[in-house]
């Protein structure tokens, strides 16, 4: 391969005392698609922002075409030919599609007047060449997420950048749109552009990338040609340790049955789900995304009531019709999307934790701050939330610590049954281990845990028993000893026939 | 490529109405028309050229300052210090004119604008470099600049007899048919319109207000834009200050006291979004016009002066509610 066009050497970056990047080196060559890989929190997005001048590195050097450069802001990196599509969409809701593409670079006449006619003509031409159909004068506010992404991509393409950085551009696109995108990326590569591509879909990388660089916990792990690695190699590089020591589930003698679900059905979501859950037990629900696992959890928690079947709590049949009622009965549900359902980012840790219990902490309508504070503090300490103090805003915490706050919040309700939906999605490896240790500890104290997880190692490592769902049906039921990765995958993907439903 | 197709299966009249309603300024225009008709029925003296010239004269200064204010509000900021800027610049300019009776009027105007720009830049610096929220920063300078008026004037006024005739004619002379002040306001409006719609910097003002983070991602230097809008708002206030001193033939310690809220009202009534990113020059001019008509109409219709302020507020709220109502109807129709 040729000389590198962009090279980073020993980049280090900290935010408020926490080191996010530690001596990371990276090099990008023309005519290559270079994948940047790592778990969430590994430092990929920060590294990208250092390359574009959005953040400045605390230490280390950046070389562009062999010359050392320093980008004070994104304007300078753009001048140098670096375009980026960030993970967070960055459109202007009040401007229209065409102007969003050319913002800051609107074509002008000799006198410096914006040439609107040319702007619309060029936007039209650009979108046509990308094969994208969008109303040029539509305000970005009213576009769908995929359409917004298309505008972002058009914007990046319009710069004729020599270096194009794409931070998870495919996460919200349909398969068809992904194909279109890849076609464009390959064309750009052929034209000599260097492309840095971040994605969590490993399969994608094997069809698109030339080389791959892996980061882990803010440190550089290695760079390999994609042809010389397998999927498992990459996972090993990302995770960096053998899987067994990640999941410290202690052996607990299961107590009496606290939750019994019998032939539970919700039309259009799931059918004939039966299982029971004991004190001190972790029951894993495995399956592909969209198998109906979350729907079962929501039905038990009273969000979407079942259409038939029964739920028994401590041997008594009950109808749960609202989350309030479920909380009162000793259930707690930690949803998958903590940003959307679990946390109020502007509020501090204490307020977030005390939210479900706020009535309990109040006397005649007045909040008893001392009680609130001490119970929030205890919950936060029990879970080892890492923060400066309990008045820190939730949005300032890392993803893993946000998840811990959500857990602390529900634990403060002293539940008997805890439902966790993807408890460690999007958090770094260290925090993941801490969450797992916590789950294990809670189970040993008698809590019954229902855990939905798409991560096989997590399901295998943490669960005492595992049920598998596929297309709304229960397609497998294994004990910890029986379960293997192969059995679960086979149950999660097998075609559904009436005979296969247990 | 152009906007949505007109709704089908409608009479042509209602089609025309819906097409008109799609203009962002439709709501306020409708409200102005209703108000003009209602007031004219009560008192035909309202709808005369003389009275309208009077209204235009009254709103020229408001329009100039409101245009500056609009650029600030579009970036999701606010400039509360404009009234004190007018007070301070008016006092300083009047003092200079009093000391130099033969001074060139052009020089006086430039001096006023320069002084206003300096005061505006100070706001911009506090906000961009001091990281102080705009409402706090300009609330501070609102007091500081007013305090400087007292310090500078030692509490005295500059009166009509101390000012030369040429200075007084700056605002009121009619060499071009309309009073100079109205023409200046129109020129300012044209310049601001061109600036906001046909220059990159102007469009970047909208971009910064619409999504500040994205603006940074897009390589727009956010702080420069924010600094600039406060400078321009000060510049507009400085120009307004010269006109104010000329029109009222005096500079007092309480000149333009409370005026900042009128400029915010004119912008917001004219459809400028207080959350940034949205606002047009025609809208703001209509907003200023509506405020001027309301003030004039309340006197002409013979509302008791004790009620006028409350009635004024009520009508402003009504105008905003009408506007929002029409906007939501149009959005539902075109969604």
How much strand of chain B? under 5%
SSE succession of chain B: HHHHHHHHHHHHHH
- CATH topology title of chain B: ABC transporter involved in vitamin B12 uptake, BtuC
Shape of chain B: globular
CATH class of chain B, please? Mainly Alpha
> What integer value in Å does the Rg of chain A equal?
25 Å
- With strands numbered from the N-terminus, the spatial order across the biggest sheet of chain A is 6-7-8-3-9-10
User: Uncertain segments of chain B of ≥5 residues (pLDDT<50)?
Assistant: 1-10
Estimate what percentage of residues of chain A fall within beta strands. 25-35%
Distance between the termini of chain B: 16 Å
- Rg for CA atoms of chain B: 21 Å
Question: Which regions of chain A have little confidence, pLDDT < 50, spanning 5+ residues?
Answer: 498-502
Specify the number of helices of chain A.
Answer: 17
How many beta-strand runs of chain B? 0
The pLDDT mean of chain A sits at 83
Structural class of chain B: mainly alpha
Helix fraction of chain B, binned, reads: over 70%
Shape of chain A: globular
How many distinct folded domains of chain B?
Answer: 1
Structure description:
With 502 residues, chain A is an alpha/beta fold. Chain A is built from 17 helices and 22 strands. Chain A has helices spanning 44-51, 74-79, 97-102, 116-130, 145-158, 175-190, 202-208, 231-239, 293-300, 323-328, 338-342, 349-354, 369-383, 399-411, 429-444, 456-462, 485-493, and strands at 6-15, 18-28, 33-37, 59-64, 67-69, 82-85, 163-167, 194-198, 211-216, 219-225, 257-266, 270-278, 282-287, 308-313, 316-318, 331-334, 362-363, 366-367, 417-421, 448-452, 465-470, 473-479. In chain A, a hairpin with a 2-residue loop joins strand 4 and strand 5 (67-69). Chain B has helices spanning 12-21, 26-42, 49-74, 82-99, 105-128, 134-153, 165-172, 180-198, 200-210, 212-217, 222-248, 259-269, 281-301, 305-334. In chain B, helix 2 (26-42) runs antiparallel to helix 14, helix 3 (49-74) crosses helix 13 (281-301) and helix 8 (180-198) crosses helix 9 (200-210). Chain A binds chain B through residues 54, 73-75, 77-79, 84, 86, 88-95, 99, 103-106, 108, 112-114, 116, 120, 124, 135-137, 155, and chain B through 1-3, 194, 197-200, 203-204, 206-207, 209-211, 213-221, 273, 277-278.
